[in-house]
Design a protein that fits this description.
This is Carboxylic ester hydrolase. The chain folds into 3 domains: 149 residues, no CATH class; 176 residues, no CATH class; 134 residues, no CATH class. Helix 5 packs across helix 6, helix 7 crosses helix 12 and helix 7 packs antiparallel against helix 13. It has 526 residues and is α/β, with parallel strands linked by helices. It binds 2-acetamido-2-deoxy-beta-D-glucopyranose (NAG) (7 copies). One 2-acetamido-2-deoxy-beta-D-glucopyranose binds next to loops.
């Protein structure tokens, strides 16, 4: 329970003094009574002072969020909002005392089901009135979708949009000055939700920051499912252990690291890398812990190939080389990928007993044909968003182990072709940055510290922070040319070992010297 409530009984006599000294706090405690919106039920409104370690007792266990440290003073509003007669979202709005006149919606991840409190804490500390919702169901499993299309619809597009509609009304009620600009920040499924807004609700946001987007999502489900039939279970002679994937990764670096001019363990443009896994097939007598069998080399080759459908059409591009070490225990684990299995069981076949080990591209065709509520999120005509004056900034880690960065390039090409616009024109409203050395939405071997989330925060200078770069673009008309990332010595919060300026697609980073590769000025976008 927040300290304010604990203090009340003790300070009753002095509450008039308290009131005059804490108008923000008073406004917060009186806010619940002011909310009369259709379909909205207020669960509680709490003042949370900066420095609170907030207990998240109500957060579903599978979300793994038991507490959140909150750095700024906020007024926390928790609600249930009906989205149909048999579905609802759990919605929170956090109103910071130090408000900048900006509204922001956060997104979700995977198939969840989890309010991303760490994002709400991050953006409210930057002065955004922030909303976050649970995507229409609780927890990380896809089971709530089972025979419940309303929950699927919330997941596809209705949760974020409803949160925005309600959140904007509450923001206008809470702050006398209302809000000036509206933003979105999300990654992975959150990146897809950002593009869903761009495609379907072009007036929801002035600026959308959509990372590692899970768009082309039906095919992403199929692509994630197709690794198991390639690797087989750990007992299979086609399988590689995580230790062997490390050997493969080192070989891929040997073949591709220096294409960008620098031997630094970071591949700047995986699109130029076509590794030959057969190069490390075991020689007679060679210790098999450092080389591959022919069958294993074929596994590597297939994993790094695109997925084609029953008709030979491209469903999903290849996994980009460079992500092997982090992909191994998840995508090539010798187990079917859990999110895909859930999607096929609970949505595609409505059969909880469906056997995920039997997946084939025939299943991919069934799933794509269904595409409920357009989960694909693959519409390439975003002219209504452009006409509305919206800006979208997307980034993708080039070591992403869950969603191939090549898919973001494919979407970029489709938008250019569909709208008939070259990159120079797309730059006016749609900019895409390739983040070398970043894994899925964060982490990785390189300069991934771009402030897309608290865990990747170096600082809030717009040159070094994707969200603040978007704010500068929307409010000052200065678009980002590059995004500077920080390489941390020992994870987020530790010292910065070096920085690198990541290029705007279709440019790529090339090492020109003369300085060390750790010198950002030794690199050029070409
Ligand atoms: C917050 O409290 C939880 C226990 O409720 C604890 O595990 C966690 O370390 C605390 N976090 C901080 C930043 O103090
Ligand atoms: C519930 O059903 C009624 C009657 O069809 C409809 O008017 C109302 O909008 C529905 N509520 C929601 C939240 O969709
Ligand atoms: C309020 O936010 C501004 C930037 O928007 C910052 O410069 C200032 O330090 C913040 N004040 C407090 C009390 O946090
Ligand atoms: C999700 O959990 C919250 C908090 O326990 C609960 O109020 C809400 O009804 C749940 N939502 C669904 C769709 O089950
Ligand atoms: C193969 O290499 C591993 C790891 O270096 C070592 O533990 C093992 O003893 C070697 N096996 C043979 C047969 O040399
Ligand atoms: C494959 O081609 C057939 C015949 O043209 C068509 O009916 C079917 O929809 C196609 N399937 C896919 C997944 O494109
Ligand atoms: C470049 O910097 C790295 C990391 O500090 C260092 O290990 C390496 O020796 C340097 N290389 C040169 C050529 O100075």
């Amino acid at each position: 329970m927040p300290p304010f409530r604990l203090l009340l009984p003790i300070l009753t006599a002095g509450s008039a003094v308290l009131a005059s000294q804490n108008p923000f706090q008073d406004k917060c405690s009186g806010f619940a009574d002011k909310i009369h919106l259709p379909n909205v039920k207020v669960n509680f409104v709490d003042y949370v002072p900066g420095g609170t370690n907030l207990s998240l007792a109500d957060s579903p266990t599978s979300c793994g969020e038991t507490s959140q440290s909150v750095t700024a003073d906020v007024c926390r509003v928790a609600m249930a909002v009906a989205t149909s007669n048999n579905s609802e979202i759990t919605l929170e709005a956090w109103f910071p005392r130090n408000y900048t006149g900006r509204f922001l919606s956060t997104g979700n991840g995977g198939l969840s089901g989890c309010i991303q409190y760490y994002d709400m804490a991050y953006t409210s500390s930057l002065g955004f009135a922030t909303v976050g919702a649970n995507n229409g169901h609780n927890g990380t499993s896809g089971e709530p979708f089972y025979r419940h299309p309303e929950v699927v619809e919330d997941f596809v597009h209705r949760s974020v949009h409803t949160g925005v509609v309600i959140g904007k009304q509450l923001t206008k009620m809470f702050y006398d000055e209302g809000f000036d600009k509206s933003y979105y920040l999300g990654c992975s499924t959150g990146g897809r939700q950002g593009f869903k807004s761009v495609q379907k609700y072009p007036n929801d946001f002035d600026g959308v920051v959509a990372g590692a987007p899970a768009f082309n999502m039906i095919n992403l489900m199929s692509w994630s499912a197709h690794f198991y039939p390639i690797t087989g279970p750990p007992s299979s002679d086609t399988y590689l252990s995580p230790a062997m994937w490390k050997v493969v990764h080192e070989e891929i670096l040997r073949q591709c690291d220096e294409i960008d001019g620098a031997k630094d363990g970071i591949i700047e443009d995986p699109s130029l890398c076509y590794p030959i896994p057969e190069a490390i097939i075991c020689k007679p007598g060679q210790n098999s812990t450092s080389c591959l069998s022919g069958k294993q080399a074929n596994t590597v080759r297939q994993v790094l190939s695109p997925l084609y459908g029953v008709n030979g059409t491209l469903l999903y591009p290849r996994m980009q080389p460079g992500s092997e070490v982090s992909a191994a225990p998840i995508m090539y684990s010798g187990q079917p990928f859990a999110y895909s299995a859930d999607w096929y069981r609970y949505v595609v076949y409505s059969n909880p007993d469906w056997d995920a080990t039997t997946f084939s591209v025939r299943d991919a065709a069934v799933a794509l044909k269904q595409n409920p509520y357009d989960l694909q999120t693959w519409d390439a005509d975003i002219s209504p968003f452009r006409k509305a004056g919206g800006k979208v900034l997307t980034y993708h880690g080039l070591q992403d182990e869950l969603i191939s960065s090549e898919n973001s390039k494919l979407y970029y090409a489709r938008v250019a072709e569909t709208m008939g616009l070259p990159p120079k024109e797309l730059d006016d409203f749609y900019r895409f940055f390739q983040i070398s050395g970043m894994a899925h939405c964060g982490d990785g071997d390189g300069a991934y510290g771009i402030g897309n989330q608290l865990e990747s925060l170096n600082d809030v200078n717009p040159d070094n922070n994707v969200l603040m770069a978007m704010v500068r673009w929307v409010e000052k008309g200065i678009p980002p040319e590059t995004i500077r990332g920080a390489k941390f010595t020992d994870g987020p919060g530790s010292a910065v070992e070096y920085t690198r300026k990541h290029c705007r697609y279709p440019r790529r980073n090339v090492y020109k010297g003369p300085g060390n590769y750790t010198d950002e000025n030794a690199w050029q976008c070409v």
